[in-house]
Amino acid sequence: MTYTHLLFDHDGVLVNTEPLYLQAIQEQLATLGIALRETDYIQNMAVGADPWALARAAGCDEAKVDQLRDARDARYQQLLSTRPITIAGVDDLIAELAEYFQLAIVTTSRDVDFDLIHALDGQPRTSTTPDVVRHMDFILTRSQYEKSKPDPQPYLLALSRFGIEPSQALVIEDSERGLRSAVSAGIDCAAIYHPFTARQRFTEASYRFADLGELKQFLLG
């Protein structure tokens, strides 16, 4: 297959943020005496399940769930600001791929989280701020589509934005949820190993790689 466009997932592929997001959820559910196990979260994440269903089952109304969600978001931003999230070698690898392909990010990240990670919208840059954004033709965050992964809508929107056929693109994902979104959109998907999602099912992936370096070797030879 000859690909001309690469569609990158964000969290877990370009930055190591998924464990921090889980931690922020776990801490809020713990205030209700609910222990959310990582294995359960990862299994439910594969199908896009709502972790706040546990709070509702414990008797929380929607107002309380909204409070928990807001507290989760604030804590996640704090963790993003204080914990290492970069993946070694990603910036240079993306810069090299940009010489041969058109690139985009298709992510479920909220705009405010994405902006914080990449020092956009006036956020201060640091020595560890990822540098991949400048190589992207565009970025689709959660605010830009109605239905999230595993629905195909995010990747179908990316195809439309580029004006290309599914056969021209390759999706790069680390989760079953993202893989299902790509497959439903009719796009080949390369699954990148991440220990956080390693136990999910990737049988529908067109390719599986240990890291982005292996992907680059596959694409460029």
Summarize it.
This protein has 221 residues and is an alpha/beta fold.
Enumerate how many helices there are, as a single number.
9
Tell me the count of domains: 2
CATH topology of the largest domain: Rossmann fold
Radius of gyration: 17 Å
Order of helices and strands: EHHHHHEHEHEHEEH
The count of DSSP E runs of length 2 or more, i.e. the number of strands, is 6
Strand residue content: 5-15%
Distance between the termini: 13 Å
User: Can you say what the CATH homologous superfamily of the largest domain is?
Assistant: HAD superfamily/HAD-like
Query: Given the helix and strand composition, which structural class is it?
Result: alpha/beta
Low-confidence parts = none
Give the strand order, joined by hyphens, for the main sheet.
Answer: 3-2-1-4-5-6
Average pLDDT metric: 95
Largest sheet: 6 strands, parallel
Notes on the protein architecture:
This protein is of the alpha/beta class and 221 residues long. Strand 2, helix 6 and strand 3 form a beta-alpha-beta unit. 41% of the residues lie in helices and 11% in strands. It is globular, with a radius of gyration of 17 Å. It folds into two domains: 146 residues, 3-Layer(aba) Sandwich (Rossmann fold); 65 residues. It contains nine helices and six strands. Helix 1 crosses helix 4. The model has no long low-confidence stretch (mean pLDDT 95). A six-stranded parallel β-sheet has the order 3-2-1-4-5-6, with helices on both faces.
